[in-house]
């Protein structure tokens, strides 16, 4: 039997990250759920172990750890702990993120730094740490959860949009740097996804109607629809894909914005 692969998922306790943890666990990966919300991460860990752990040769399939990805030392410890816990590290999903809106003129003073620390700098530090392991083992997959807000601007989303645009080119550059190392690096760009991150938008009837009308498919995604693409990108089926930036957006980026 081939060795069980290991996936580390940041922001793995909720939304897209939780769906991704479940998707990998369902395909026999061992998963580390890394999140600042330890209680929610533990709940998911127990659920996944109950659902998928009993069939595994190694017993439990999931574990979790508490991390604030805005802290470099914690990010590095997260990577070390995952490797120590499971013995290898095959997949990193840099998924933790915060929204935080506001035009430049009115955004709170600490807003920019906070969003950059969580959405961008954490991706750099986690990738740097994990590459030391992947280069030694001669293989690996990294997927970054960017956003369609990183492909073009979004009203009132100054720092968020800038952080996701930077993640997209960090993805491309890292993919180039390791294209001959058997390490693939890709990004997904979700549109609207039904998660707590955009609950404020989706729970407001008037805003939600407009937002959903701007999506050609007329609905938001379920987190599983993003998780499936992340899982695919890390699979052998995507063996010739690296540096790819994939919108998963119900057709939003296919639309120029001209009236119907
Ligand atoms: P979510 O709020 O459901 O999940 C985000 C998770 O990240 C939470 O569990 C949270 O605790 C964790 N997190 C936040 N800050 C953290 C930190 N400093 N350290 C550790 N963990 C932290 O949101 P989601 O929608 O699943 O978002 C996941 C990713 O998808 C984000 O990067 C987000 O920008 C991106 N995204 C979401 C949407 C959407 O419509 N929901 C669209 C495009 C991109």
Automatic annotation (TrEMBL):
<feature type="domain" description="Ketoreductase">
    <location>
        <begin position="5"/>
        <end position="204"/>
    </location>
</feature>
<protein>
    <submittedName>
        <fullName>SDR family oxidoreductase</fullName>
    </submittedName>
</protein>
<dbReference type="Pfam" id="PF13561">
    <property type="entry name" value="adh_short_C2"/>
</dbReference>
<dbReference type="InterPro" id="IPR002347">
    <property type="entry name" value="SDR_fam"/>
</dbReference>
<comment type="similarity">
    <text>Belongs to the short-chain dehydrogenases/reductases (SDR) family.</text>
</comment>
<dbReference type="InterPro" id="IPR020904">
    <property type="entry name" value="Sc_DH/Rdtase_CS"/>
</dbReference>
<keyword id="KW-0560">Oxidoreductase</keyword>
<dbReference type="InterPro" id="IPR057326">
    <property type="entry name" value="KR_dom"/>
</dbReference>
<dbReference type="InterPro" id="IPR036291">
    <property type="entry name" value="NAD(P)-bd_dom_sf"/>
</dbReference>
């Amino acid at each position: 039997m081939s060795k069980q692969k290991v996936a580390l998922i940041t922001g793995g306790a909720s939304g897209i990250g939780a769906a991704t943890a479940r998707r990998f666990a369902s395909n026999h990966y061992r998963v580390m759920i890394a999140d600042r919300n330890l209680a929610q991460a533990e709940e998911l860990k127990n659920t996944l172990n109950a659902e998928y752990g009993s069939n595994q040769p190694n017993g439990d399939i999931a574990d979790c750890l508490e991390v604030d990805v805005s802290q470099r030392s914690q990010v590095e410890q997260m990577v070390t702990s995952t490797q120590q816990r499971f013995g290898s590290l095959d997949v990193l999903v840099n998924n933790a993120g915060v929204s935080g809106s506001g035009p430049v003129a009115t955004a709170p003073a600490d807003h920019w730094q906070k969003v950059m620390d969580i959405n961008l700098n954490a991706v750099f530090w986690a990738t740097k740490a994990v590459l030391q392991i992947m280069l030694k083992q001669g293989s690996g997959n990294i997927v970054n959860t960017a956003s369609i807000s990183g492909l073009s601007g979004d009203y009132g989303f100054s720092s968020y949009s800038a952080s996701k645009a930077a993640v997209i080119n960090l993805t491309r550059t890292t993919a180039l740097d390791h294209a001959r190392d058997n390490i693939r690096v890709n990004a997904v760009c979700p549109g609207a996804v039904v998660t707590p991150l955009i609950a404020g938008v989706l729970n407001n009837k008037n805003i939600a109607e407009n937002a959903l009308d701007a999506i050609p498919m007329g609905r938001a995604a379920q987190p599983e629809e993003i998780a499936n693409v992340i899982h695919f990108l890390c699979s052998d089926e995507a063996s010739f894909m690296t540096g790819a930036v994939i919108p998963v957006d119900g057709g939003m980026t296919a639309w120029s914005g001209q009236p119907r």
